[in-house]
Amino acid sequence: MMMKIATLVSLIGSTASFTSHHGAPPSLVASSTSLSMNKPAGHDVRSSGPAMKMDPEELKIQEALAAHQQNAPKLGFDVDVRSLVQYNHGFAVMSTNSKANEGFPGGSVVGFAPDEEGRPVFIFSGMSTHTQDLLADPRCSVTIAAKEFKGAADGRVNLMGKVTLVGKEERETMKAVYLAKHPGAFWVDFGDFNWFRMDEIVDIRFVGGFARAGSITPAEYAAASPDPVFAFGSHIASHMNDDHQSATIGMVANAIPGLDVSEAVITSVDSLGMYVKCTRTPRASDQPQQFKIRLPFPRRAEGRGDVKVVIMEMTQAAMAAQNEKVEEVEPEAKAE
What is the secondary structure of 212-270 as a DSSP string? Predict the structure, then answer.
């Protein structure tokens, strides 16, 4: 799949450090690159002082994390984007070209539902400003955040294109699509409301979190299918976070030796694995840091029941590894 990667991140360097405000993994390297009008924009993580020598054990942990994350299986951008739009909460920020204030963008929070091709469908009152804006100029963008969105480390998609009126012959079909996402939308039968759809998508931008950003083509988006596990992944994440966070902490420790975290919150689940927001206090530091990591499944999960089986297998493997460590330590303690 052709992708224009907007973010290039070095994995390990002598000035590697944790960063918390972007949710970046601890393998990111501080950069002294300055912002210039003549340079392409990108993510620049700056060092606020002289380089500090890192504890050798901490460096080993960061190297292990970087290697693990580089090789961790994850959904392609096209499937990630298509899944986020499909299984969203059904609300987005629409930016239109303002009719009343020429040259300025108009922003509105709007309800939407994706059709079978992933095109957002809307129903707007004839009196709303965004309706008037679209009738004058159909060009707009729609920004959709992940259902679990809480900050910069979470996913969001921007669809740029043209939103136009839907013909009368398609209105019943549009109603069914919209009600599937918004079953309480009683206004779909109001006479002064009109159906719109983004029929022409010209650009798609995706940010999956810090150091995971880029774009896909409209053709790639149209050809992609939503990940089936993504549909119920948030329910699995909530259950694990509420009742089994210790198991997630154990899975993280087993996947990346030495990475002992105090908190591990699953933010999303798909057929290939999970994204986990971790809290950890680095060696030689007293300040806890947060970062997101990819925790892959040992194999692709084929459904809800299979996800449960895979997570149980990972939990059991983590427990076995922990017991083995304890058994190795006990003889040494007795010998002393």
Answer: EEEEE-HHHHHH----TGGGTHHHHHHHHHHH-HHHHHHHHHHHSTT---SEEEEEEEE
d(CA 192, CA 175): 15
Q: What DSSP designation does 18 have?
A: -
Q: 5: helix, coil or strand? A: strand
Q: How many residues does the chain have?
A: 336
Q: pLDDT digit of tens for each residue in the chain (336 aa)?
A: 444 434 333 333 322 333 333 344 443 333 333 333 344 444 444 555 555 677 888 899 999 999 999 999 999 999 999 999 999 999 999 999 999 999 999 999 999 999 999 999 999 999 999 999 999 999 999 999 998 888 887 889 999 999 999 999 999 999 999 999 999 999 999 999 999 999 999 999 999 876 788 999 999 999 999 999 999 999 999 999 999 999 999 999 999 999 999 999 999 999 999 999 999 988 777 889 889 999 999 999 999 999 999 999 999 999 999 888 776 655 555 555
Instruction: Kindly report each contact of residues 172-179 with a partner whose C-beta sits within 8 Å and lies 24 or more positions away, as own/partner.
Output: 174/115, 174/121, 174/123, 177/113, 177/114, 177/115, 177/121, 178/111, 178/113, 178/121, 178/123
- Parallel, antiparallel or unpaired: strands 120-125 and 91-97: unpaired
Say which DSSP state 4 is in: E
pTM: 0.78
Q: What is the C-alpha to C-alpha distance for residues 260 and 246, in angstroms, rounded to an integer? A: 12
